[in-house]
Amino acid sequence: MWTTALVSGISLGSFYILIALGFALIFGVTRNFNLAHGELVVFAGYVSYWLWKVWAWPFVLTFPVAILATLLICLGLQRLFARLCEPLELNSIVLSFGMAILIQNTMLFWFSGDYRLIRIPTLSQGLHLPGFYLSYGQLTLLFLSLTVIAVLYILMYRTYLGKALRATIQDKGAAAQAGINVAVMGTLAFCLGAILIGLAGPLYGCIHYLYPSTGHEITLLAITITIFAGVGRLGGIILAGWILGLAESFAVILFGTSWREMVAAVLLLALLAFKPRGILGKGEQ
Amino acid sequence: MSFFASKNTKFRTQGLRFHSVGLMTGLVLLILLPALVQSNNYILQVFTHALLLANLALAWNILGVSGSISLGHAAFFGAGAYCSAVLSLEYGFSPWFTIPLAGLLAAGLGLIMDLICLRLRGAYFALATLAFVEIPRVITDNWDGLTHGSLGLVGVPGLPSLSLGTWVVDFSASITASYYFVFVYSLVLLGLVRFLFSSNLGLAFQAIREEEIAAEAVGIPANRYRLLSLLLSAYFTGVTGACYAHLVHYIEPGLVYGLHFSAIPMIFAICGGRFTILGPAMAALVIYPLDQFVFHPLLPAGHEFLYGVVLILTVLFLPAGFWGGLRKVS
Amino acid sequence: MTVLQLQELSKTFNGIYALSNINFTINEGEIVGLVGPNGAGKTTLFNLISGRLRPSSGKILFQGKDITGLKPHAVCKLGISRTFQSSRPFPRMSTLHNVLAGQVFGKGFSLHTRPEDEQMAHELLDVVGIAHKAETLAADLTLSEQRRLDLARALATRPKLLLLDEVAAGFSPVLVKQAIKLINRVRERGVNLLIIDHFLNLSQKVADRLLALDHGEKIAEGPPDIVMKNREVLRAYLGMRYQDEEDD
Description:
By secondary structure, chain A is mainly alpha-helical. Chain A has a single domain (2-274), classed as ABC transporter involved in vitamin B12 uptake, BtuC, CATH 1.10.3470. Chain A has helices at residues 2-30, 37-53, 59-82, 88-111, 121-124, 136-158, 160-170, 172-177, 182-207, 215-229, 234-255, 260-274; strands at 126-129, 132-135. The radius of gyration of chain B is 20 Å and the shape is globular. Chains in contact: A-B, B-C.
């Protein structure tokens, strides 16, 4: 049982990393907290569900459409964020909170409040390894998440574009002085974020029921992981995602499923109360 | 220079006169509403609910005026609703006793929130409140023995009838009585908020919001005043939650701890004007009926997009809120 | 009688001394100038006295009472008030309400503003010369007016000791003359002053004594003419002196 929990925790955690990356990237580069993040993930899931269920597209082919749809919305969002005045972080929270309500209700209108699941039979089969059970779904999550992380790592740490992005994350003003177009970096962050959301959404639809108000939970996960990691630390995000996945997985075993929802909230509150700059963060608060 | 100054003051007094005429008309309309709509139950129900939401917005704004934006007031609302509902339904206490008690429980929760968020400001405070709701919600959800978990509580007793001499107010007979009850509660809360904001407590709240370091340097113990505003805000949110439980008779965790009751007071307060006394209540009395009478029939699923749109437009184009440009707290 | 006494006062940030072993006394009726180059620890000293920072070691006595480690609002209530290097008004409040906040909370607390509080606030605005802006939002004041507002608000708390952080920095000679007049008026009210004066355009003319800091250490104290001739002070300020003479 414990090894199963461990495996499912790691696989879930890897997926949480995928979910949080988009949020963290947008926050890091533009200092905008996008509370509509979870709603966008669910929206991408719905797009994929619709193509798969109604038009009977192969599941894999729904990803590009989901990505494109989120990309368009994110670019629109970025225009609105760009109009905000100081204090940027707080105003972005209020703005995107409104956005979350708007997207949630639009989904309620289009897709109704029914629970939907992208049911792919092969994903629920799996391997009986000695001591634990590994489903193909978990394996896919693990594999896809790690691939995306690897690609993002190469982008951020092995290319000039990544260097420019990291510079903007560290110090917007200094980056601008060094000739980096900060506005373009902001747009880029939103685009990359949208791609990550578009990837995460359909996967989310495979492992979790889709309904309009479930986005809130995803947003909370993303916030928790981002705050845990501190700004601009890819390694921190990976660590945070795994810790959160494992914590939830063990919480289910120890206390029961219904307590799982509190794990992220308690972790976030503890972080904010004691280490608002992130576990790996340095300096005084 | 003096020319401008005098012109400015004149404009202000004109504005005030216009306001008081408008306010008196609004007040009279609200008092006469049951007679005007001939006790049309649906319209009265909507306005009763609008007044409840106005109270939530007023209560939210007690904290809002000291600069904190809370996205988690559903924690206080839900805790208040559950406290009063459980005590009256399971233990048979009178709602007149349990409603104020519910406020105290909510204030206790506010104290816990303050301990957690002591050092957090602005965006980080808002995020913490967003997470904070989950704690009372999940506890309520899991405390089956007391709260029946996610099934919710059905048949929460209504408000018992009041007898004032020979005149008996029976809340179960008509919605009109409930309407006036919430109306009176709104007036009391409005009076209290007005008193708070125009007293020197309001001065302290504003000073903390504007520049905390300077506020402390002139002798304002910022943490103490922020706690005070949070406790008052939580108390009245809890009381309003309790009233809600007794008026609607049914509560469940997903509803009373839901995003709805966190978002609505914030949206009304911000749209109406965060730094004004009346603005939040006005916004509730305009937007909620608009939603119920216009958008709900048009779009049964998804009519609440209105709140999102209103919030987005306010943040982008009217940061001081609708009422904010017209009348300041001070 | 001593107003303020600093005993072996030190402050470290991450093990680095921002101030080390400062001993100093301000006597009744004195105006003291605090001088020193950038990073000497002047503002840190202000933050320690006003309670914004806790000293790492040492003691601060105010009128014989130990105030080490008290919170800023408590320090203010005892009678120490300050202004800020870059003024910190309450931007979306009227000038009058800015001063009223100091008047109401500086010493005690009253639930409602009394007429005499309001009158006093108007008087203070008049003292600093912005009485005609009483109804203006603080955010709409010019920088020099905001600095005056800072001063009026600090005075409204009825301090026994007033800490002024760079009141005259960047002022033209005319404004400096006004500032000197203002400081003398403040002194007449029985207020002792400690003035940070990085650019040395004020303290030489009003201060009874100077305290010179460099790298967190006291390098000299005494009457202005003597301190300004002190070799250590000259060395610490050398670059700065040339600059000043060129400007004059």
